[in-house]
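Extended Data, panel c. Modelled sequence:
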Amino acid sequence: MKKAFINESGVLVAWGHFDTHNDDQGVEVDDDFAMQPGRARLVNGVWQEFDPASAPPTSVTMRQARLALLAAGKLDAVQTAIAGMAGSEGQAARIEWEFAATVDRNSPFVQQLAEALGLDAAALNALFTHAASL
């Protein structure tokens, strides 16, 4: 059985034939699978080749994130969305916003804010790419 192993971002890290009883590790692939580790990723069940140099960053500093949001005209909307979050979820969001040193593209906090602002994956990637350049 041939399996591919991916990291938390869906990027291929290794593949090969594995004779194992632990079926929950790795993704089963066809025998002719030959994508290059580090240059392919699994997105919604479909393998895609990509250039890692062109991939959007997965993490930026909070400074970079806030400057990118300011440049995109979204900083006030983020602050309003965070202020409007209730309960312990709201408290956790305010702690993240005020004290986190970095912002992780795949964190639940960022996903929640992106949804509140109506940002799709492409818009979020563009924000992170711009933030990384600051």
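Residues 87-99 form the longest helix (13 residues). This feature is highlighted in the accompanying rendering.
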